[in-house]
Amino acid sequence: MNQDIKEVLFSKEMIDQRVQEIGSKITKDYQMKDLVLVGILKGGVPFLADLIRAIDLPLEYDLMAVSSYGASTKSSGTVKIMKDLDMGIEGRDVIIVEDIIDTGLTLHYLLQNIRSRRPTSLKVATMLDKPSQRKMQIQPEYNGFEIPDVFVVGYGLDYAGKYRNLPFIGILKEEIYQKK
Ligand code: 5GP
């Protein structure tokens, strides 16, 4: 699998360190709060799993699934809920945990949807941010790394369902797309 990667942007060590920093920040910001992390399937799972263990507070987490790009590398702009939350979040302090914000369309929809359930507070943590591609004005409160307009895989991010289990984040070789 590693031979399909053209360039590693963020090593496992860089990711681990950044997640610890974000976890410490959340630990400071959410003292005495009723914290719920909402992980977005499937890409947000590795970040969620690492982040909850970097937060030194009582918390709960739940999962939501929204429609993704499928095997394409560009956003379709349509968002559909495939799996909803199991728990109520009214009156609670919610952080949405995402893999990446690109156009912001997915998150814009999610924020509206979750806000309508009346949490006390609602913030966003994302591992990666591509601000140059934004179609919606969204600024995550907790952000791992900013990246330019490149398509990346690893640490939860896929191409056609694969590469999510890479422990680093990198750019695929062009020939991998051309095979499709
Ligand atoms: P947005 O709605 O912000 O355009 O897109 C968010 C979703 O698009 C992410 O949750 C992710 O599934 C997918 N996405 C955006 N950019 C990339 C990328 O560079 N690599 C991969 N694998 N998925 C991406």
Shape category: globular
Strand percent estimate: 25-35%
Please give the order of strands in the largest beta sheet.
Answer: 4-3-2-5-6-7
CATH fold label? Rossmann fold
- Report helical residue fraction: 10-25%
Description of the molecule:
With 180 residues, this protein is an alpha/beta fold. It has a single domain (12-148), classed as Rossmann fold (3-Layer(aba) Sandwich). Helix content is 24%, strand content 29%. The protein has helices spanning 12-29, 45-54, 105-115, 174-178; strands spanning 5-10, 35-41, 60-66, 81-83, 93-101, 121-129, 142-146, 152-153, 169-172. The longest helix is centred in the N-terminal third of the chain and has 18 residues, at 12-29. The mean pLDDT is 92. Bound molecules: guanosine-5'-monophosphate. Guanosine-5'-monophosphate is lined by residues 43, 68-69, 75, 98-107, 151-153, 157-159.
